[in-house]
Structures are given as C-alpha cells and as structure tokens.
Design goal:
This protein has 666 residues and is of the alpha/beta class. The chain is built from 24 helices and 16 strands. It folds into two domains: 2-230, no CATH class; 236-664, Alkaline Phosphatase, subunit A, CATH 3.40.720.10. Strand 6 (385-390), helix 18 (399-406) and strand 7 form a beta-alpha-beta unit.
C-alpha cells in the first residue's frame, strides 16, 4: 500500500497544484453548504429541520466528486506531461481545472438559491424557462425579501472566488514545504477520507431523500446531459395495461356512455384520446348552449389558498375574502377543488390542457414544441374572441408561448402589474372593446398582488408588511378580493353580462409551514393544492358541491357550458354532469369524483373520499387523508395500509399516463 501511494504521489507531482486547488474549492463548497443548510429559506422557515443530519453527508459528497474530478484532470495532465516532457502541459491543466471548478462553483450557488426558493434543483429546463430578462427583476425582488439574510446571495457571489484564491495561496505558502513530503501525506489522507466518505454515505448512514437534496451540480449536469436522455418511455405492453386501467376508471367516474375512447389515427393511439358519441353531438342541451353563445370571464387568482378563503374555511375570522364569499353564496361552488400543478405554470397549463402538469419536466419550456390543444383553442376555433390578460409578465416563465398558441391576443403592461390598475384596465377593455365586437368572447385574467412575499399589494402599511407570512397573506388576499369586486361591479350591469359565465379560481395555494412544508415544491398537501372554485351565471343554481375535483376538470366543464363536444385528450371530467351537493352547508356526503395533480417531485390523487399524497414514482413518502380532512392533520397511511397501497398504485398509473400524453401530444 505504501509503495502504491508513493507511485501515485510521484505520478501527481507534475500536477501538485491540482491538489491544492481541490482543497481550496472543497472548503468553499463546505461554506456554501453551511449557508444553505443552517439558514432559513426565503419564507422564514428552516431549509432543513435537522441540518446536522445533512452537513456531514454534504461534506463527504462534495469531497468525493471533487476527488473524482481531480483524478481525471491529474491523469490527463500527468500523461501529457510525461509524454511531451514540458511544464506547459501542467500549467494548461491547472488553468483548465481552475476554470472548471469556478464554473461549477457559480452554478452551485445558483442551485442552492433555486432550492431555497423553489424546493427543487437547478436544471436545463428550469434555466430555459426563466431565461427571460424580466426574471432578473423578479429574482432581485425575491432576494430583497429573503427572510433569512437579504442580499446575502450577491455578497457570496462577489466574494466566493476571491476567497477560494486566498485559500489556495494560503495552502501553497504553508502546506507544501517540503513539497514531496507534504504531497505524499496529502494523497494518503485524501484516499483514506474518500473511502470513509463512500462508506459513510452509501452504507453507514444512507437516505434517498437526503441524497437527492444534496446532489451536487456535477451530478445534475450529468443527469440532464446523459441519464435523462436514456430514460426509456412506456413499453407497448405497459402502455396497453395503463391505457385499459385508465379508460375503465375514467368511464366509471364519468358515469355515462357519451364518450368513447378511440385508437383512431387522429389520436395516434394515445390512451387519453376520446370522441363524443352521436347522441351527445346531437343533444338538445348542447345545442341550446351553442345557441346562447355565452361569454366567459375566467379569473385566476394568484396563490389563493382554500385555507384562507372565507367560504371554504369558516374558522378564519374576519374573512380575507368578503366579496368572493358573497359571490359564492349565489354561485355553484366546488368545496373540494384542487390544483393540478405548481407553481403558476403548473396551475395555468393544467387548467387549460385538462391534464396534470408533467411530473418531471419543466413543462412550460421542455414541451413547448408539443401540439397540445386546450379548451381555449376549441373556443377560438369556433368563433370566440379569446384574450389572455395578465398582471405578471407571461414571458417570464414562458407561459406567453403557450397563450399565443391558443388565444386571439395577449395583454400585459409592466405599468399595470398591481391588481388595482390591472383590474381597472381589464374591466374597461372587456366592457368597451370585447363586448362590442359582435361575437362571444373569453377573457382570462391572471392576477398578481397576492404573491410571495405577500407585500405587493398597493398601500400596505409598514405594520402590515412586518407581519408574519401567515398573517400577511390575509392582507394581500383581501386586497386582491377588493380589486375583484371592483372589476365585477364595473361590468355587472351591462346587458351582455346576463349571458356571461364568471369563473373564479386560484392557480394554486401556498405552503406556510403546514405539514412541515414551506416551499412551493415541497409536497402536494392541501396547503398548496386546495383552492377556491366557483362558476356564476345563467342556469346555475347556488349550491355547494362536494364532488372531488381538480383543475383538469375545467376544460371539459367550460366546453359543456359553451355547447361544444369535440375529440380531446382531457383527463378531467365535466363537473356539471351531476354529483353530490350540499346546499345546507352540512357535512359532506359520500360522492364520486377524482382529483389529480403533479407537484414537482410529488403527486396526489383524490377518489372515493380519500386523498393520497406521495413522492412521484417512489415508495419513500406516502400519506393518506380522509377527503374531508382539508387541513390534512391526520395521516391514515398506516391504519389504512391496504387502501393506501391501492390508491398509490392508481396514482402511479395515472401520472405515467399523463406524462406520456403530454410528451406525445396530438
């Protein structure tokens, strides 16, 4: 062993600077890990609850990948140096090695911040999604409102490379004398520590969740470049099995024979492709709706949680949403509506497409080239004037690309990012322009003011801005509610309003510490998934519907109201087909329905009065809740193990089917 170490040390002699560079960068990585694991996330909650359970793994993982890189560069440098007998090779190798580590260090800082803000790692898809220059302004807003240490990210960005250089100079001055003796000892120590690290991480104290959270940038890059490209899709056998399972379930939930699944050429054999029956196409009900030519106003309220909506959670007093509550009292309300994706891109896309957000890909960017029709494209193709109005820049997260596919026009102005000016403009545009075009219209409005860090509402006092997030969200939700009230009151006396369906829902909720989650991508619990949803309009009686539902149901429901039945790949159901209602506000009755969503590493399914939440394609974390336990405080996974296993298997099947369908389109 001693002779082997001596040979290694001798071989590394031409590249001894690489060892010092490696140690310097390793120390810097340790400091970055400490600042990640021992700080709060931007929302004021600990990034991890037990940082001491993570830091030793982090130190070992970073040491191993740095040593792997050292060996590769040292071997290449040593081979060339011995081959050509010149010191130039060693210098070039040192420069390349330093550049390599400098780039990785910068991406590591960015990955750390992505984890702190979104709960997930950096990826090429995510980088592409947020490549728009407006994201720089949004990033600055997030950094400025970081409840840990505002602007610390910028300080670290400026200082980390000079610090690393200083560490290298310190080691070079005090560590390498006499050169051979110290180098030999350092190689011995590194080999021993590498072996100990490997045993510790992979055998002594393992943990998939911890390993996933601590995955270094080099692994992320490798996975994006090579592993993900090699992932096999569903085999024909698996696809056939999943198709049959899904289609049987869908028909059981739908409860009629008005739709038929088809393997026709138009559907390319997609498991979701279904066509309306002749009976449905010729139905008097649809004909009457088409004859009405109703208008649609579809309002997506940013980050509105069911937990903070008065008519959904009567325990919260005073209610932050008095206008929405009053509108709900005269509308068809779904009390168990769930988002089908997060963040905003997930909620908005799944609402339009009738399919949950992709469980692994950054869908807004990664699948922008796929042909995926929405309910809006059906309306547009049937003579509707369709307009997407957003208080936030739709180009920031690549949503503009999708809206341009479906809508007649998009509307965004950076001077109208506050809900007050946005709603004022939208009301006048709908009343004075869209309503006078001589054809039915759809106006989709996406609000902004109730957004993290929940201080965007105009006129907030310093005292309100200083409140904890759990209280501050009530202030911004109330502000957004007042702007919604102004919008509706501006147009409700117009004659055309009598022939208009007003649909109001949230894009998603927001976790504020419930279930141990405080980042957007930290799970599929009700704090992020349970959202308000109401439809107000002609022919809809005021009811409180306890049907389990999700955003994927919006597309078929809107088309039912418009009177159109077209071939589609919606996974959702028409919510107006019938279901359980509770107009007396008594306890929910057993009902049929389905909710499905994918939440960046987690997924959830609600059916038969239960809801299962799980890490996607994993058995590590599985939770089961009664459907009426909207706070999800009582996990039934252990006491209802058989039901949990059955629902988890069903969830896995549905998510694979939805991912496959999104990737293939029409």
């Amino acid at each position: 062993m001693k002779d082997f170490i001596q040979k290694i040390a001798k071989f590394l002699e031409p590249s001894k600077n690489l060892v010092l560079i490696s140690l310097a960068f390793w120390i810097t990585h340790i400091l970055l890990r400490v600042m990640l694991l021992f700080r709060s996330n931007p929302y004021g909650f600990p990034f991890v609850s037990k940082p001491d359970w993570f830091i030793f793994h982090a130190v070992c993982i970073d040491f191993m990948w740095i040593c792997n890189a050292l060996v590769v560069f040292a071997i290449l440098g040593g081979i060339f140096a011995h081959a050509v007998q010149t010191k130039t090779v060693a210098k070039v190798t040192t420069i390349l090695y330093t550049v390599f580590h400098s780039v990785i260090l910068l991406f590591t800082l960015l990955d750390n911040e992505v984890q702190r803000f979104l709960g997930g790692h950096l990826s090429f898809g995510l980088m592409d999604t947020y490549k728009d220059t407006s994201s720089i302004t949004m990033f600055y807003d997030y950094v400025a409102n970081d409840l840990s240490v505002p602007y610390l990210q910028f300080v670290v960005l400026v200082l980390m490379l000079p610090l690393t250089y200083g560490l290298y100079k310190f080691l070079a001055k005090h560590y390498c004398k006499p050169e051979g003796f110290r180098l030999k000892k350092s190689v011995i120590a590194m080999v021993i520590f590498y072996i100990a690290s490997y045993l510790f991480v992979y055998f002594i104290w393992t943990g998939n969740a911890r390993m996933a959270k601590l995955r270094p940038v080099v692994s992320l890059l490798y996975n994006d470049l090579f592993v993900s490209k090699k992932e096999a899709g569903l085999t024909e056998k698996d696809l056939a099995t999943y198709r049959t399972s899904y289609q049987n379930l869908w028909q059981r939930i739908e409860g009629d024979n008005h739709w038929e699944f088809s393997d026709a050429k138009e559907g390319n054999g997609l498991p979701l492709y279904r066509v309306p029956s002749a009976e449905l196409l010729n139905s008097e009900k649809l004909a009457a709706q088409r004859e009405m030519k109703p208008n649609f106003i579809f309002v997506l309220m940013e980050s509105h949680r069911g937990l903070n909506t008065g008519f959904m959670n009567q325990q919260i007093q005073p209610t932050p949403t008095p206008f929405l509550d009053s509108l709900a009292a005269n509308s068809h309300v779904w009390m168990r509506m769930h988002t089908s994706g997060v963040p905003t891109t997930g909620g908005v896309l799944s609402t339009h497409l009738g399919i949950p957000h992709h469980s692994k890909l950054a869908q807004a960017t990664d699948l922008a080239h796929i042909t995926l029709p929405s309910f809006v494209s059906v309306l547009t193709g049937n003579g509707y004037s369709t307009h997407y109005m957003s208080a936030a820049d739709p180009a920031w997260d690549n949503l503009g690309v999708w809206m341009a596919k479906w809508y007649t026009a998009e509307h965004y102005n950076r001077e109208r990012e506050d809900d007050s000016t946005f709603m004022e403009h939208a009301a006048h545009y709908v009343r004075d322009t869209l309503a006078k075009q001589g054809k039915p219209f759809l106006a989709t409005l996406m609000t902004r003011s109730n957004h993290y860090p929940f201080n965007f509402a105009a006129g907030m006092t310093d005292e309100q801005k200083a409140r904890p997030l759990q209280e501050r969200i009530n202030v911004t939700m109330n502000y957004a509610d007042r702007q919604l009230a102004h919008f509706i009151r501006t147009i409700q006396n117009e004659e055309w309003y009598k022939n208009t369906y007003v649909i109001i829902m949230a894009d998603h909720g927001f976790p504020l510490g419930e279930n141990g989650v405080s980042t957007m991508n930290g799970g599929g619990f009700s704090n992020i998934s349970w959202i308000p949803f109401i439809i107000h309009g002609k022919g809809l009686e005021p009811v409180r519907d306890t049907t389990t539902a999700a955003q994927i149901d919006i597309a078929p429901t809107v088309l039912e109201l418009a009177g159109f039945a077209v071939p589609n790949i919606f996974m959702g159901h028409n919510l107006l087909r019938g279901g359980s209602t509770d107009s007396t506000n008594t306890a929910p009755k057993p009902i049929a329905g389905l909710s499905l969503g994918a939440y960046s590493g987690y997924s959830a399914l609600g059916i038969d009065n239960y809801r299962v939440v799980s890490k996607t394609n994993s058995n590590d974390e599985i939770y089961l809740f009664a459907d009426n336990d909207m706070r999800q405080e009582h996990d039934l996974a252990k006491t209802e193990s058989e039901r949990t296993a059955k629902m988890h298997a069903m969830l896995d099947t549905l998510i694979k089917i939805s991912d496959y369908s999104l990737e293939h389109g029409l």
